Known about the structure:
alpha+beta, four-stranded antiparallel beta sheet, globular
Amino acid sequence: NVYCTPPGCPLSVPLHTDKQDVFVFQSQGAKRWRVFNPPPRSKGKDPLARGKNGDVLSIEELGEPLIDTVVQPGDILYVPEGFPHTTDTINPVDGADKSAFNEASIHLTMGLDANVWCLTLAHMRWSLLQRLNKPFNADLTDDEVYWKAMGSVPVGFLGGKAWRSTIQSINEGKGVGSEFQQVVSDQLKDVLVSMEPSRWANTNGDGAEELPSHAEMNQVVDFFVEKHWRSLMETQEELFKDVDARKEETLLRAFRGTQDQNQIMEDFGEFSNNKAFAESFRSRRLMNEQRAQMAMKQGS
């Protein structure tokens, strides 16, 4: 997304949170950003959509900002999901040059949508338990555990050496490497136990259920990496390759990419044994096909 804000705007975006991590690339002018720690979770309020859909988030309930800065051309700012932020183009931070706000502010944002595409440890837990026909709802009261569960599946640089070796293994047709399976399974197990410590049996004999086996966890890890993540990445790369908004091919590629994404999410629902989830994306995909066919008929 590209955002353009005129000079002297006292509130260019209200205080809110987003469901994705965001990189901000400032290209022209300047903009003041204030970023805060996530507030304590409140019942009925989505931590990843605070300040939206009628919810009002006030600075008074957040305390001092983690970041209070003016970004200028060439600056890059990273805002994690769930971290409240607000912007303006009128209030320079102490010591900043007021003339920085003399021209319109233009910046590009790039979202990292781990939550949107079900690439978090919470989604991995959700998939695992449904595949085993086990209850997956949990009443979380600990904010720290919530944010741990919302952590991304450790692909890319998050996976370190184990990720580099497993990518090589996948490219060679050998599947997900055992070291990476162990890394992710350990994180998944940690989330399972942290979210419901009294549910799972431990070495002291407490708990009513045995944790899912390593084999069951590894099946989910393999699907998430070799099938789900990889398919999403391939689709995204094709979707944003050689983009030219003036060409019909770009629009057609965007349609095909969206349909491929719907299919990927449908497959994720099927793998996770959640028919309703799969059907929602199947219906969306078929509806898009029908609309496209109608548009072609009207245009012919």
